[in-house]
């Protein structure tokens, strides 16, 4: 496990390495990852993909960590999905040679994709328009490199993509094929993040599969080769019961999970691998508040559970060991201040100034993005049963 930072990803402020210290030592706030939970989450989806007979292409956008990714493919570089070219470059430098860049391509970024291709890295680009297909095909011809492209399919109206029966779909595919760039189709069931029942998630997973497979079959019927049929989101990946016609499954949030996923029922609170350590810095008993040094700069502004039946504010609160403190919620955040309050008529616990707590986040991707890296714990205890020991420090890839 990495204990030194990658270029552009500095170590925790004020410490050359936190390894061997405990969660009671570094200045707060800082991000913590429970590696035992990560391993369990990874194994769960890997086993599911194997049962469904599809390849798993994890999305690294949540952790953005080479160390976390090493757990995805048993320590060896494997296929990944990225959300930025900075991720693609960092993972390529670490030996990953099979990368899907799952954000719509634009002309200015093609130079970086071409550079990776010339270094022997397969980087699939994503597009959903004739304009994009035309400039990708032209760039591939001019550079004389392979630029495999996936056509984005809209399975639920969540974001970009073409509907499977869109009139322009075969024409876009033909432009790519004629330049040797057509790889396949990709879809993402983004609306599944609002599916609050198991049946709703199964329905979303079937719609996701059906849209991608229908688009692929339509292209094949037009005489166009389709190698890749890619689907996935964390909710649908854990709900799919039949992926016939699909070649690969993508998901990313599942590595850490978060309160949104727990609120949907995709995971339990004991699956959440990411938290943020904060310190109590004040009290406002007249308002029923405990103040901490972890505001939205530590947790993000994400309020993803606000639309769920149980609003979890900015996060749930645990002690330093990770044991949930019942009915205490981070209810407000300013830049460097977090406010903890009690709900359901509960009394606030008596927490002295200097007490360290951990906050479980709404959205792991957003909270992780506030930090340069992760202090990793694995259940090891310090002397005389003190706080959990930090066993590794995992830098994050930053930038775009």
How would you summarize this macromolecular structure in one to three sentences?
With 400 residues, this protein is an alpha/beta fold. 27% of the residues lie in helices and 25% in strands.
Model description:
The protein has two domains: 30-34 and 264-395, Lyase, Ornithine Decarboxylase, Chain A, domain 1, CATH 2.40.37.20; 53-254, Alpha-Beta Barrel (TIM Barrel), CATH 3.20.20.10. 27% of the residues lie in helices and 25% in strands. The protein is built from eleven helices and 17 strands. It has helices at 35-52, 66-70, 85-93, 110-118, 130-143, 169-178, 198-221, 234-237, 259-264, 296-299, 364-368; strands at 30-34, 55-58, 80-82, 98-104, 122-127, 149-153, 182-187, 228-231, 248-251, 274-284, 289-292, 315-318, 324-333, 338-342, 356-360, 373-381, 388-395. The strands form two sheets. Strands 2-9-8-7-6-5-4-3 form an eight-stranded parallel beta sheet. A six-stranded antiparallel beta barrel has the order 10-11-14-13-12-15. Helix 5 packs parallel to helix 6 (169-178). The chain is elongated, with a radius of gyration of 22 Å.
